[in-house]
Known about the structure:
Elements: H1 7-31, H2 60-64, H3 74-100, H4 117-123
Amino acid sequence: MNWTMPRPVLKVVAAVIGVIALGSFSLGVATAPARGRLPGERAEGGAAVVQAVEATPLSQERIEGPPPPPEPTPEELAKLEAEKKAKEAAAAAAKLAAEQNPAPKADAGAQVPAPDRVGDLLASPPPQPPPPAEDPPF
């Protein structure tokens, strides 16, 4: 293999990396607690229970979901009924107008081609910004 650094320099770098790795491992072992606990095990010495002051209980709405919407008043029911009747009357009038004045039908074989947007772009390309007055130094 062809290295760009001399072999002795590579050995020094490898030794430094090894010393750092061994040092970090030994510091991790030295600072570890004497005996760890498994999840669910109680700590020795009976640690006191900490009371959380800022904790708040969940609201009833969050537990049961939002309350149902209020029942509509008679005025709102009348307004909704009037809107429904107006929509039905408009639909019936539109249907009657369509039956009386049928739209001219196009031939089934003759389809209107879609506009050629790409051709329009090629025919008139967008304007280009003017070239810079001086090239930047490299």
